[in-house]
Specification:
- The protein is α+β, with helices and mostly antiparallel strands.
- It has 2 domains: 2-70; 97-236, Umud Fragment, subunit A (Ribbon).
- The protein has helices at 2-21, 24-95; strands at 97-101, 116-120, 134-140, 143-152, 156-160, 163-166, 169-170, 184-188, 193-197, 215-216, 220-229, 235-236.
- Strands 1, 2, 3, 4, 9, 10, 11 and 12 form an 8-stranded antiparallel beta sheet that branches.
- The protein is elongated.
Length: 241
């Protein structure tokens, strides 16, 4: 009996232990602990996500701001470069070089109709035109002429027997095509003026015409130096003294 009792007591004790291990209070505490830890995790994650969202938003804003500054800076740099190029082009055109279009055949065969050439304006800042130069000068407010310098101040010019004489010496003019020149002169060219003729002597409005006359040095725009168009006709223009 004592053994049975002892066994029963032992079984009861074991059952009590098992019951205590799985008591409702124990399960409740364990469940409560699990729920508490589980609840904390999403809260932490949510807070982290909110912080990340704020940081991402700030990063995107900063990137847009930097990109905008870069674009504005590049626009300013391009605008400055374009403005500088325009200023340089204007200065070059006003003081150094200018492009002219040949209209007509008064300078044939040296220049052809519709050829484009470059005129050097700086050449005559320190020197006056010389005989043989091909010059562009202002004929009127809205019209320029291009002709060859034949004589300068104090020279005597005369055309006789289809020959041109300067200071009594017949000029050798290999650039001329065959053309008839009516007799002219003799005349003395005033100081600070030049006497000009077209190379196509039979079809040129030049210093022989009273409407053109002697050309004041102040009206000379520059010296023709280069034909650049058409490309296949490009060439340097050389004077003939």
């Amino acid at each position: 009996m004592e053994d049975v009792e002892s066994m029963e007591n032992s079984e009861n004790t074991e059952t009590t232990k098992r019951a205590s291990l799985y008591s409702p209070d124990s399960d409740k505490e364990a469940d409560t602990g699990d729920i508490s830890e589980t609840a904390k995790l999403p809260a932490d994650l949510t807070e982290h996500d909110e912080d990340s969202g704020v940081l991402d938003s700030m990063s995107r804003t900063e990137v847009r701001r930097k990109r905008k500054k870069t674009i504005v800076r590049e626009i300013k740099e391009w605008a400055g470069a374009i403005l500088l190029a325009v200023v340089i082009a204007v200065l070059i055109r006003l003081f150094f070089f200018e492009v002219f279009l040949v209209e007509g055949s008064s300078m044939y065969p040296t220049l052809q109709n519709h050829e484009r050439l470059i005129v050097n304006k700086a050449t005559y800042y320190f020197n006056d035109p010389i005989k043989g130069d091909i010059v562009v000068f202002n004929y009127s407010d809205h019209r320029d002429f291009i002709k060859r310098v034949i004589a300068v101040g104090n020279d005597e010019v005369r055309i006789m027997g289809n020959h041109l004489y300067v200071n009594g010496v017949q000029l050798d003019e290999p650039y001329l095509s065959e053309s008839h020149m009516p007799d002219f002169g003799p005349v003395i060219i005033p100081e600070n003026h030049i006497f000009v003729l077209g190379d196509n002597r039979g079809n040129s409005m030049d210093s022989r015409d009273p409407a053109v006359g002697y050309i004041s040095l102040q009206k000379v725009k520059g010296k023709a130096v280069l034909v650049f168009w058409p490309l296949d006709e490009g060439r340097l223009l050389k004077g003939n003294k």
